[in-house]
Amino acid sequence: RGKVSEGETVERKEMYKRRKKGSFFFFKQKTAYEMLRSLVGSEMCIRDRYNYGDLLCNVPESKTCKSKKGMLSFTPSRFGFPRPFLWDEGFHLLLGCRWNEDICLTSIANWLDTIDDNGWIPREQPRGEELRNYIPGLVENNNEGNPPSLFFPLLYLYKKTESSGKVNIFIEQYYQSFKKWYYWFYRTQNANKRSGGYADRFKWWGPIEEINLGSGMDDYPRFNGTSVSEVNIDAQVWMIFWSDAMRLFSGDLGRQADKIFFNQRFQNTLKNMAELLDKSDLLYKDLLVDEETRKQHTFSQHFGYINLFPLAFGLLPKGSAELNATLDFIYNNDTIWSEYGLRSLHIHDEFYGVGSNYWRGPVWVGINYLVLKGLKLHYSDVPEAVKIYTEPVSYTHLTLPTIYSVQISVVAVSLKKKN
């Protein structure tokens, strides 16, 4: 259009401010919270991008890989990770949906349109040669499945009265894709996959036990010596959440047989979560098994984010000893608490800060958000939970020219604590 006049620039700035106040929670004073809100909101809303092309996969014949498809995605890290990530997208769209519902639903639709005949959605999608140049040789593995975080923005819009009509149409349009994706996870991430059958117990399956990209928490330790994962507490909780959402959608669409199925999955998966409670300290943990004998079961002794999932999704009864134990574990400088937020791994763990140090200490905004959301929605009348929720955190990272949307990397060094 050519040069924009000074008056038009001022008008656009005021329009943006009004839109921002209407889209996101507003703080009246110019506090650090308001600065952070403005920074995160503007950073995210200018980072949506569209890419088009095919994928490299371990199953080249897969239609979703060899077909050229488009993807509209919020991709905040354009230099470090300039490609869409499935479970990251669910968190990004919690902001994106508040800013523009149509863009949000288009992004979710693009992801669902990449589902293959078996129900697999590739967890990261560098479609086209340009994006793959950043990480040559990147191949998607159809054994890996990310958490269903896309249901976060979907449920937000679904429960938003003024958006319900539009979202109901969208859910009905993509309901079969939701089912196909759910069934894929239910089959492939089944903890009893070696012996067959569906036991409503889940774990993350990947090429190796030491690194689990599918879980989203890549190098988080899930083994003790020769013992490896049998059931993962975070995978179990994700399936409880997913089954609950699917029974809601199927019921409202009048699909009673599906509602019965999803309700049974919800009840069974929730009941089986009790098997992951270590009664010695009342924390929920990964269940491990000896890799050779497949008989000797133990609880993982690595403490960190995964122990918080039952609280984050409101699955711990109020007044229970399990809730009190988890709150005590959180609010402890000698475990995962810090002035910057919750660390991903216990500071005295043997793997704390070791190796790539990705999910072995640094503070991740997404998981901190889940914990805060759980505290507010489910435990706002529990004094200990309120104390944690209202505890101020340091915002020294606001002096940086940008914010890391998932990981506040400044703490990766500043939280290094050896005793």
Description:
It contains 15 helices and seven strands. With 419 residues, the chain is mainly alpha-helical. Strand 6 and strand 7 (297-299) form a beta hairpin. Helix 4 packs parallel to helix 7. The protein is globular and about 65 Å long. 38% of the residues are buried. The model is unreliable at 405-419 (pLDDT under 50).
Highlighted features:
globular, mainly alpha
Shape: globular
Q: In percent, how helical is the residue content?
A: 40-55%
Estimated structural class: mainly alpha
Using only CA atoms, what is the Rg? 22 Å
Strand content: 5-15%
Secondary structure tally: strands: 7
Strand-and-helix sequence, N→C? HHEHEHHHHHEHHEEEEHHHHH
Strand order within the widest beta sheet: 3-6-7
Mean pLDDT: 85
End-to-end separation in angstroms reads 61 Å
> Low-confidence runs (pLDDT<50, min 5 residues)?
405-419
Strand count, sense and barrel status of the largest sheet are: 3 strands, antiparallel
What is the tally of helical segments? 15
Compact description:
This protein is 42% helix and 7% strand. The chain is mainly alpha-helical and 419 residues long.
Task: Write the SSE topology.
Elements (H helix, E strand, L loop, with lengths): L5 H18 L8 H14 L2 E6 L9 H4 L2 E6 L11 H14 L1 H12 L16 H4 L18 H8 L5 H25 L38 E5 L1 H20 L3 H17 L4 E2 L4 E2 L2 E4 L6 E3 L9 H4 L8 H10 L34 H14 L4 H8 L19 H5 L5
Antiparallel strand pairs: 1-2, 3-6, 4-5, 6-7
Helix pairs in contact: 4-5, 4-7, 8-9, 9-10
